[in-house]
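FORM 12-B: Structure-to-Sequence Request
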């Protein structure tokens, strides 16, 4: 049957979106269907009885992006099969009978091929030289291929790999990790169980690796690099099946949304105590330096003094757990009078002023003592000496006898 795109769907397959997606799986095919459309993007030939792949049957598939051949009995792969598939991204050859592969078996699609599945094949790796020459390949699946060792040059031409799956093989727990050294872009590696020392060496050898997926658990190389223990570096998988949502909420640890009343009372008490102490010290400073300000400060009622505004103690908290903001200036009573002079002076300035007054007083006392003990009092102290008292005695007045 011919579709709108001008291509006919092969009778052995089912097509969708015209002939862009062909499903020819589970049809017991022994040969590739003839007349494959040239605009096909995804071709599924999995789970058939294909043993040999006819190169001529794929000559028109120049737009093919995904070729699925898993679950067949393919023993050889001809590299000319990919000669015109310069857009192929995914090639799945898993669960076949592939044993020997040339290093350039997939090189014809090397520039576009990103994912290659070779799992469940009896792969035989070369003793020397690279296994495959695909520097642009990003994902390679070699799980369950009966591999027992990896020669040092196996991945030398697969430097672009970000994911490598080697699970289900028979490697030694203390295997050499030098084979992974060329994989500078590898981020996830799946392996059978390895010893702790081998895992640590592997994390050091591959610079960008993040997760090592072992048989029983995953190891994070990021945590190992941050001086975490081996047990702390084990990643716990989150269950994929979500738990049923219960209509009744079970008691859980409540998320703290506001402080308890007990803590609020403690903060208030601490604030009142610190405020009263600072008010007392402020009143002493006012009495000593500026007595006239005592009257003004007494009119301020319960308002905190200037010293209580600049302290760094705990801030008061109201009933809604909100911090009460204290202003930097305080009004002088409820009648809107201007702030007192003392409120504009910082405690540090107040201390310096008090020390200056005390120093001047002490200096005046010293000068007074010196003036009393020396003879320079007239010059230094600005006072005149009193004349010495005379010893002359006034004569007694004569009283007339007639007045006696």
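FORM 12-B RESPONSE
SEQUENCE OUT:
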């Amino acid at each position: 049957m011919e579709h709108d795109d001008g291509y006919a769907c092969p009778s052995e397959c089912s097509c969708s979106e015209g002939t862009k997606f062909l499903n020819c799986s589970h049809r017991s095919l022994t040969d590739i269907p003839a007349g494959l459309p040239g605009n096909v993007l995804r071709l599924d030939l999995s789970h058939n009885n294909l043993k040999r792949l006819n190169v001529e049957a794929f000559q028109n598939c120049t737009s093919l992006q995904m070729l699925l051949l898993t679950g067949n009995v393919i023993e050889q792969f001809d590299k000319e099969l990919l000669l015109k598939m310069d857009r192929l991204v995914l090639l799945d050859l898993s669960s076949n009978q592939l044993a020997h592969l040339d290093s350039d078996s997939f090189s014809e699609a090397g520039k576009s091929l990103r994912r290659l599945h070779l799992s469940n094949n009896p792969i035989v790796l070369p003793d020397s030289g690279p296994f495959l020459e695909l520097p642009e390949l990003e994902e390679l699946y070699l799980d369950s291929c009966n591999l027992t060792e990896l020669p040092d040059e196996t991945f030398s031409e697969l430097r672009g790999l970000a994911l490598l799956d080697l699970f289900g093989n028979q490697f030694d727990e203390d295997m050499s990790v030098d084979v992974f050294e060329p994989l500078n872009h590898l981020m996830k590696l799946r392996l059978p169980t390895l010893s702790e020392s081998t895992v640590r060496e592997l994390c050091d050898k591959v610079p960008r690796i993040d997760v090592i997926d072992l048989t029983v658990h995953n190891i994070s190389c990021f945590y190992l690099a941050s001086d975490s223990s081996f047990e702390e570096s084990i990643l716990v998988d989150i269950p994929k099946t979500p738990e049923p949502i219960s209509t009744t909420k079970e008691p859980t640890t409540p998320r703290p949304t506001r402080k308890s009343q007990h803590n609020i009372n403690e903060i208030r008490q601490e604030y009142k105590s610190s405020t009263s102490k600072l008010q007392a010290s402020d009143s002493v400073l006012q009495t000593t330096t500026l007595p006239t300000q005592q009257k003004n400060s007494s009119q301020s009622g319960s308002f905190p003094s200037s010293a209580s505004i600049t302290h760094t103690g705990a801030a008061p908290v109201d009933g809604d757990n909100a911090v009460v903001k204290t202003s930097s200036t305080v009004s002088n009573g409820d009648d809107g009078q201007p702030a007192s002079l003392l409120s504009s002076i910082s405690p540090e300035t107040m201390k310096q002023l008090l020390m200056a007054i005390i120093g001047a007083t002490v200096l005046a006392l010293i000068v007074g003592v010196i003036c009393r003990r020396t003879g320079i009092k007239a010059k230094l102290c600005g006072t005149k000496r009193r004349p010495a008292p005379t010893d002359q005695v006034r004569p007694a007045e004569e009283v007339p006898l007639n007045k006696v």
